[in-house]
Amino acid sequence: MGQPRVAVTGAFGFTGRALTERLLAAGHEVVTLSRRSGAGDPLAERIVVRPFDTADADGLVASLAGVETLFNTYWLRFPRGTSTFEGAVARSATLLAAARAAGVKRVIHVSVVNASANSDTPYVRAKAALEAVVRSSGLEWVIIRPTLTYGPKDILINNLAWALRRLPVYGIPGLGRYTVQPVHVDDVARICVEAGAGPSGLILDAAGPETMSYRELVDRVRAAIGSRSLVVPLPGVVVLAAARVLGLLVRDVVLTRDEIRELTSSLLASNDPPRGEIRISEWLPANAAQLGRQWSSELDRNYR
Asked: Is the pTM above the cut of 0.85?
């Protein structure tokens, strides 16, 4: 007898893809709810693709028929145009209501480490608001809180490497002594799949096995790719201004004011024992040849 049918929001995205690949390898039939058609993507041939259209609640219910567990990775990195954090929470609530109506038993929801309604930034507050919606959804639930997720073609590490390959000077906010705890996307996917088969009602941090200062992370990326870029401490406002100039060049949002605040507040590290196993200190040199060769566009991923 095969594994139960499961659903993943955003199987063509970064975390969603890693999660989908792991679920397929475990023998699950996977349905994805996606704003992309998946045309031309080899993954689309291995899964059932349905539109993620919260204006069509009946369509969502039909798409989730026969699904036992929903893995929800849907979110926005930053608001843009009509896409807002409040809208993302509302769409997620509609999705969870459709899941319940379809008979879905459990939701594994991907949030962010240190989600809190008292956070200084709207991103983290909205993540906490959505966690409350998940807990009150009427479904069995597990909330996974990743730290700083990295992996092939990610946004942060890949684009950091891109900049270090091309810019003579790379500025970091302040002295870079604030901490980060990078977790590989495959570890996040594994933790999510394990949670799907475990007890419900848990909030689990998905953190990597190594904690370091942000300056150390930048230096490790720089060393891995053989960059000669000069890394210099700068005030946050200067880093933000430089990021906006770079954004004009790559036609993307490179860094936001809130992301600088979250980074420099050490919010991207966990106080729990690490569940991740892949060490970024080993992954960087092993993958250096591919790092930063092309810019990874957040606008292309989240807003098309």
From this structure: yes
